[in-house]
Amino acid sequence: MMQIYWTKINHIIEETSEVKTFMLDCPEDFTWEEGAHTHFALEGFNAGEQPNRALIRHMSISTLPHEHSIGITTRIREQCSEFKTILRNLEIGSDVAIFKTHSNVPLKREDKNVYLLSSGVGLATFRPLVLDYFERPDNVGHMHSLNIDSSDDFLFSDIFTSAPDKTFTSQFVDNRGDYYEQVKALAADKEGVFYVVGSDEFLLQNINVLREKGIHPEQIMLDKHENQRAEFLSQDVSM
């Protein structure tokens, strides 16, 4: 039987004008690792015979266990889905459910440089990896984050700031042209490990650029189950 953890929102952080982080109480035996995602569901999702998929979303956990809260960071625009509309109106103390938690992108410690490539709120997936690296830099060379965000209202700016003493660099660009030029430049590191988080289209574009620059599929980490990852990485590079 799949275990569903019901828990409460204990804090809501307004990260930017459109992005909120919902902090959830940690159920007693709930554990996760950096790079984890979970199924995040609203009340009523399992009220009928079949789960109501409109009330379930696949979300990254933007915190680490020692922060004692499960952080779910998401963008909520003015015009949004039923799920986001309900979420926007939830308050501290509201009940939500989490289940099927898994990490496809834990931090690889292979004495290589790590490149985090993301779009907008994709940074939420990488926040725990950066924190984990800051706390324990063992067997990671340099870490570099590249994010495309046209809002100028950058997420987690307290963490995603270049810190030479921690051999960490953070870069934000506001357009695709500059972004992909930077990806090409980073791909000069033929030994690097490249993590990519964003929409499926974004993943495919990044994979194409990296593959054309000679980066091998095993160096590209996607927040996808292994069979989906293989599918993304097997697409024709010249498309």
Automatic annotation (TrEMBL):
Domain of life assignment: Bacteria
Q: Which Gene3D superfamilies match?
A: Translation factors (2.40.30.10)
Which SUPFAM superfamilies does this entry report, sorted A to Z?
Ferredoxin reductase-like, C-terminal NADP-linked domain, Riboflavin synthase domain-like
Q: What is this protein called?
A: Ferredoxin--NADP+ reductase
Species name for this entry? Salibacterium qingdaonense
